[in-house]
Design a protein that fits this description.
Layout: H1 13-18, H2 29-32, H3 34-45, E1 50-54, E2 63-69, E3 72-78, E4 84-88, E5 103-105, E6 109-110, E7 117-118, E8 124-126, E9 145-149, E10 152-156, H4 165-176, E11 184-194, H5 198-205, H6 211-214, H7 216-219, H8 238-258, E12 265-267, E13 275-280, E14 311-316, E15 320-324, E16 329-338, E17 341-351, H9 362-388, H10 402-419
Antiparallel strand pairs: 1-10, 2-3, 2-5, 3-4, 6-7, 7-8, 9-10, 11-17, 12-13, 13-14, 14-15, 15-16, 16-17
Helix pairs in contact: 3-10, 5-9, 5-10
Bound molecules: FE2/S2 (inorganic) cluster (FES) and fe (ii) ion (FE2).
C-alpha cells in the first residue's frame, strides 16, 4: 500500500476497501457516496445491535418510541407484562405505517388506515370484514430483535443478530447495574441534526484531541493529564498531577468499597459488538458536569453513595456512547439520515424520584453537553465539507486517535464480512 493508492476516489467499494491505507482516514466516498451510504445501511445498521433508547423512555405498559433507521421504522413498546418489545412499524394488512409519532402511549396499536388493531405484544386482535377462515394468529406484527442491557435498549434489524451481545452484556452489566438506569426518568432529550456522515460523527466522538480547543465547558470536568506518566510531569504540572492522583485514589477506593469493577476494557475492533468501558476521575469538585465539578442533581443514581464517583464512559459500535455520573447519566445515539446528514439524540437521565426545580434544573443539568454537542456539530460539519472537497486526501491518525482507528478498523472489517461472508 502506498499513499498514491489512496489518492484516486472511486465508487468501486471492493477496490476502495482493498486499497484502504491502515492508519489513515477513509477515502472521500465513504463519507459522501450514496452507494456506500446504502451499503452502510445494509451492512451495518440492518445487521448489528443498535442502541436505540433508554428503558426510562418507556416506563409504563403501552409507552412506545419509534425509531427510524433508513427506510425502516421500528416500534419499541413496553407490553402489559412490562417486557420491552420491538416490531416493524408496518401494518400486516396493506403495509401502512402504524405509528407516526416519535413517542407516546397507547392501549393497543391501531393502524390509522383500516384500523387493524394489535395488542402491545404484537398480536392482531381486530381486523374488519374478514372471511370466517381468516387466521389472525398468523398476522401479528413482525418482531424485531430487542435486548435490554441494564436499562439500555438495543435492537437488531437482521434475521440473525450478532451472537456476542450476551458476552458484552456479561462484561458491562456489573459496571452499569449499580447506576439503576431502569429506575431513572428522562429529564431532557435533544435531537441534533448534524451535517455530516454518521462515521464522521462517530470518529469525532472517539477522540478528545480537539477537546482542549473546542470544548471549554467540557474540558474543565476532566484532568488534562490522560496518557501522562509521572516522568512526563513538569514542575508546573505537579499540582494538577497530585490532584489527579488523589482523585484516582479516591475513585479506586470508592469502587473497591462497593465491589464496583474498576478495570478498563477495550474491545472496540476485536468483536462484532465492539465496545469500550473506562472509569475516569473528574477534576474540581469531582462529582459531575456542574460548575466546578459539582453535582447537577441532588438524588444519586442507583446504589451510588459517593458523589465523587467519576465518569463511567462506555463506547459501543456502531452508534452510541454513554456517560454515567453519580447523579445523572447522558446517553447518546447516532442514526444516519443521508450520506452527509445524521441525527444525534442526547438523553439526560436522573433518578426517577428527582424533582425538576427541586433536585435539578434542566438548564444546569444539560449545559455542558448542550454546548459540547453544538461545538461537535460544527466540527463534524467542517469535516464533512472538507472530505467533500476534491482537494481531500486521507491523512494519518495521531498517537491519541487510536479509538478513531479502532472504529474505522471495525467498520471496514464489518463491510468486508458483509461483502465476502
Ligand atoms: S393497512 Fe393497516 S389496516 Fe389497512
Ligand atoms: Fe467533541
Amino acid at each position: 500500500m502506498t499513499l498514491s493508492n489512496i489518492l484516486a476516489p472511486s465508487t468501486d467499494t471492493d477496490a476502495l476497501i482493498d486499497r484502504r491505507a491502515v492508519g489513515y482516514s477513509l477515502e472521500a466516498p465513504f463519507y459522501t457516496d450514496p452507494q456506500i451510504f446504502d451499503l452502510d445501511m445494509a451492512a451495518i445498521f440492518a445487521r448489528h445491535w443498535l442502541f436505540s433508547a433508554a428503558e426510562a423512555e418507556i416506563p409504563d405498559p403501552g409507552d412506545f418510541v419509534t425509531v427510524d433507521i433508513g427506510a425502516y421504522s421500528v416500534i419499541i413498546v413496553r407490553d402489559d407484562d412490562e417486557e420491552v418489545r420491538a416490531f416493524h412499524n408496518v401494518c400486516r394488512h396493506r403495509g401502512s405505517r402504524i405509528l407516526q409519532q416519535a413517542c407516546g402511549s397507547v392501549g393497543n396499536l391501531v393502524c390509522p388506515y383500516h384500523q387493524w388493531t394489535y395488542r402491545v405484544d404484537g398480536e392482531l386482535v381486530y381486523a374488519e370484514s374478514q372471511p370466517p377462515e381468516f387466521d389472525r394468529s398468523r398476522l401479528g406484527l413482525r418482531p424485531v430483535h430487542v435486548r435490554t442491557l441494564a436499562g439500555l435498549i438495543f435492537i437488531c434489524l437482521g434475521d440473525e443478530p450478532p451472537g456476542d451481545l450476551d458476552e458484552v452484556a456479561a462484561v458491562l452489566e456489573p459496571y452499569l447495574s449499580p447506576y439503576g438506569l431502569a429506575d431513572t426518568k428522562v429529564a431532557h432529550q435533544v435531537d441534533l441534526v448534524e451535517e455530516g456522515n454518521w462515521k464522521l460523527v462517530m470518529e469525532n466522538n472517539r477522540e478528545c484531541q480537539h477537546c482542549d480547543t473546542a470544548h471549554p465547558e467540557l474540558i474543565t470536568a476532566y484532568f488534562p493529564l490522560f496518557g501522562y506518566s509521572e516522568n512526563d510531569i513538569t514542575p508546573r504540572l505537579r499540582p494538577v498531577f497530585e490532584r489527579y492522583r488523589a482523585a484516582q485514589d479516591h475513585l479506586s477506593n470508592a469502587c473497591s468499597v462497593t465491589g464496583f469493577p474498576r478495570d478498563e476494557r477495550r474491545e472496540l475492533d476485536t468483536r462484532i459488538t465492539g465496545f469500550q468501558v473506562s472509569h475516569l476521575p473528574l477534576d474540581g469538585g469531582g462529582a459531575s458536569f456542574g460548575a466546578d465539578g459539582n453535582p447537577v442533581s441532588r438524588k444519586l443514581l442507583g446504589d451510588i453513595e459517593d458523589e465523587r464517583f467519576g465518569d463511567l464512559s462506555i463506547h459501543m459500535q456502531p452508534n452510541a456512547w454513554f456517560h454515567m455520573l453519580s447523579d445523572h447519566a447522558v446517553v447518546f445515539r447516532v442514526l444516519p439520515v443521508a450520506p452527509g446528514r445524521s441525527v444525534v439524540r442526547t438523553t439526560w437521565l436522573v433518578h426517577a424520584d428527582a424533582q425538576e426545580g427541586v433536585d435539578y434544573d434542566v438548564d444546569n443539568l444539560t449545559a455542558v453537553w448542550n454546548a459540547t454537542n453544538l461545538q461537535d456539530r460544527d466540527l463534524v460539519a467542517g469535516a464533512q465539507r472538507g472530505v467533500t472537497d476534491p482537494g481531500y486526501v486521507p491523512g494519518p491518525y495521531s498517537m491519541v486517535e487510536g479509538d478513531v482507528e479502532s472504529f474505522v478498523n471495525w467498520y471496514v472489517g464489518r463491510l468486508r464480512t458483509y461483502l465476502t461472508p
